[in-house]
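Let us walk through a complete example step by step. Step one is to write down the protein sequence. Step two is to encode the small molecule, zinc ion, as a SMILES string so that its atoms and bonds are unambiguous. Step three, shown after the inputs, is the structure prediction itself.
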Amino acid sequence: MVVYKASQVGASEYLVSYALHACDRRQATVLYVFPTDAHVSDFSSARFGPAIEASDYLDAIIVEGRQKAADTARPRGADRVTLKRVRDRFIYFRGGRVGKDGQAAQLKSIDADVLILDELDEMDPRAPVIARKRLGASRLAEERLVSTPTYPGRGIHAEWLESDQRERFIPCQACGERQVLTINHIVTEWDNLGRPVAWHGGPETAWAACQKCGRRLNPLAGGQWVATRPGREVVGYHLTRLCSPAADLLEIVQNLHTTDETKRREVYNQDLGEPYVPRGGRLTEEILDDCRRDYAHLPLPGEAPVMGVDVGKVLHVVIRGPRHPETGETPQRFAGEVDSFEELGRLMRRYNVRRAVMDALPETTKAREFQAAWPPGTVWLAYYVGQRTGTRRVEPAQWDGANGVVNLDRTRTLDRTMSRFYDRLNTLPAYARDLKDYYAHLTALVRVLEDGPDGQAVARYVETGPDHLAHAENYCTVAMSAPGPAAVATASRAVNLRI
Ligand SMILES: [Zn+2]
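Step three: the predicted structure of the complex.
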């Protein structure tokens, strides 16, 4: 069975019940695989534990910590998290990590009857292949594959395409038409950047309307699962949050009102339970033209702007004024190159820059010296670090105050910066077309989908030409979200103490 789903629609609760039932009533051994060991301990304490505690019956059949050493070769401390004994059967919880050699020792030597693969799209794609071999000796040999999707044709979506594709059909109370609820039952008009312009009940509320008669649908009334590819061996369920009694449809519509590709993907994956088709990604000259406003590059008296610096043979610099309280626009005060760190210092003083983020590479020593010449928290050194899909729990910019370093998820921070141009919030001076290299650098970065090192799809920006000013803009966006002086003061005290 394939469960292709939005987040928080009850799939974990279903899997817990299914695993326990398999042990209790079907004399099955269960291998329950998560993407990582961290997922295992989270799940064991947050999902599995409470389910047991809530039931006297389950509590009575779980033999926890009482099994004899002969039952298992694993140490007892680890067992409490990664192994549950139900009557005389076991549920093995395992992370799906696969080593460089293609081996996964933690999945070996378990003979399972039931295999559960949870959050498949975050898993090393080699893990399911290894785990499936554990079913070889079983007469049951059942599989449950569950995940929120990521991209079309990947992971759970690919598995779903091979299944009988059961969708929930909702009958219209007015005309009787049965239909599968999608975002297009709610949103009636989109702009050309894919943002909702008009929707049923808008702008104060949002509801789904019948595609045939236009009357309001009740997503909870009399729905029915129907296989749209009947007769296939694998059963597939598609669970969207649009049918969930807990769903806030207005919030889902509002969450789509962004041009940030990372955020759009989250709404599609987590709320709608749909794979996301990334927008072909590069800024155009038309969008940049649209960002032009009637001002020129100059320091503004009394203003304390932020700065981004891309370090190379020369230093590419962008300076932007503070966010306008009503429009959210950030005016560009400077965009260009300087030849040396000395000149950069003069530029900073001239513009009264309060916060700067600069490339730590390749001139780390010079960048460190430059940083040391300013009060703590003024200049931050930035590193682009590796990123994976499904990292929404971690902020795209990680501030390390003690070291004056900020670690950046390259794709996600660039998504944020590009979105400020799509939304016409990063404004440009009237003569922006004449700025040396500016348009060329900003349109040189193209957002593409690539195969990551372990086969997962990864969105990346690739450069099709020199792109230094685009990264200077990105560092500048990061500088806008730098932590306040209080946090920095604490961090610098910590440094002093250590000295
Ligand atoms: Zn109808």
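Step four is interpretation. The chain has two domains: 2-271, 285-498.
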